[in-house]
Amino acid sequence: MGCLVSQLAAKFAFFPPTPPTYQVKKRDDGKLVAVSTASSLPITIDDSCLDVLSINTKRGNKIVAFYLRNPCARLTVLYSHGNAADLGQLYDLFVQLKANLRVNLIGYDYSGYGASTGKPSEYDTYADIEAVYECLQTEYGISQEDLILYGQSVGSGPTLHLAAQLPRLRGVVLHSGILSGLRVLCHVKFTLCCDIYKNVKKIRKVKSPVLVIHGTDDDVVNWLHGNGLWKMAREPYEPLWIKGGGHCNLELYPDYIRHLCRFVHEMENMTTEVRLRKIRQTLALQKRWKCTSMCCADKCCIIKVRRPRWPQCLNLSCIKRPKCPEWKPKCSVRKPACPSCFIPSCTGLSCWCKKCSCRCTICSCLCAAKCSCW
After folding, report:
1. Confidence of residue 357 (pLDDT cuts 50, 70, 90)
2. Superkingdom, according to UniProt (predicted)?
3. Of 47, 49, 55, the residue nearest 31 (C-alpha)
4. 299 falls in which pLDDT band (50, 70, 90)?
5. DSSP for residue 335
6. Rounded distance, CA 131 to CA 142, Å?
7. b/e code 231-253 from CB counts within 10 Å (16+ = b)
8. Packing angle between helix 87-101 and helix 254-269, nearest 10 degrees?
9. Neighbour count for residue 112 (Cβ, 10 Å)
10. Which of the residues are catalytic?
11. 3-state DSSP call for residue 225?
């Protein structure tokens, strides 16, 4: 039953363009080129900036990938596109991102999309992105330390699947990401065993910085999906909520490329030493005590001790927090003025006997045993 529901969800999740917007042909020298189906012309004239790749996956499919190189790049972006699109439609966007972000960029078509073989499914997309990552390692020598994963809409599923397996990844971008497939289709707030793309669980395993970009007026994937992913990320980066943005038009807003450039620039400057320092600071903050009292702005303790710490106060609700420099004791119980006894009514005056005129240095409550006249 679970498999049937999963297959049904997959039918609603994947909408490859029909017919594809491009074809892959082999030239006489053996090099692959992408040709537009509308004009029968190559997608690009400059062959030096684009490599058209055919990659085998572990599930027996052959997927097509475009690798765009930038001579000034220090990082590489692995782009997983959204639904109802293929590489022929996204090539112009890839060129702009490559130039503005100053990165190498590789995009790929899922199984059953574009010129890729097979049929689209959740596990096929997982095999697709794993094959592309392996190609980056073997063919171009790109390690995970120099890689940023970018997932748009449905592409957030394979993106988080791979990101959860790469602890030294440079960064992750989730563009109109989803919490899970059924949460989009049925608007539920729980996870079933037959659900697809359970990003709500995988986001917690990602150890690299995560940038979330989402439109506030997205009528396909509600903004709450992006907000939920950002809140559950272990190392969230400042999110970008594009006011009035929909599901497929966020690239048209100036804030989109501006914020994305700042994120990539910070990831470029983040060395291993800086990254380790941030991780240590995060762990140290989690171990610090946080004060639950509103009087403490530093929030330095999280554990309430249910025994009195002040010897002058017997109220169990009065708690001393010695690690908080801003804390001042506030006890509603009246403290006795007499240091010798803990009777609130005692004023602490010394006792004077009228018969023998003796005086006791202790309070009158305890002087009966000292005076011989008693």
Report:
1. low
2. Eukaryota
3. 47
4. very low
5. P
6. 14
7. ebbeeebebbebeebebbebeeb
8. 60
9. 18
10. 153, 218, 247
11. helix
